[in-house]
Design brief:
mainly alpha; rod-shaped; 0% strand
């Protein structure tokens, strides 16, 4: 009877051992799949590093271009203001010239009138 129980226990142990070996095989398979996924993930990380670096570089270059554009806009505004000042100064010079021409005409008119008056005497 004890021998029968021992044989049954041994059979159950062998059965459990077979199940354990099967679980071990499945675990090894799962580990192999996990290692493959890890390798693929590392490869993807390596492949995406360069595009990320390029994108960061492009962002920096875009910021620089924006700064340069702002500087050019500021300089253009200054040139426009200076041009407006030159236009105002030119208008002032024209008015002064018109005044001088008017005064010269007046002087010439008076001079010619005085000559005419003297010659009439």
């Amino acid at each position: 009877m004890v021998l029968g129980i021992g044989k049954t226990a041994l059979a159950k142990t062998v059965s459990v051992l077979g199940i354990t070996e099967m679980v071990l095989a499945k675990t090894k398979t799962a580990l192999g799949i996990a290692e493959m996924v890890l390798a693929k993930t590392k490869m993807v990380i390596r492949m995406t590093k360069t595009p990320i670096r390029i994108t960061v570089l492009a962002i920096r270059m875009t910021k620089t271009v924006i700064r340069i554009a702002k500087t050019v806009i500021g300089m253009t505004k200054t040139v426009i203001r200076m041009t407006e000042m030159v236009i105002l100064m030119t208008e002032t010079v024209i008015r002064i010239a018109e005044t001088v021409i008017g005064m010269t005409k007046t002087v010439l008119l008076r001079t010619s009138t005085a000559r005419y008056a003297r010659s009439a005497c």
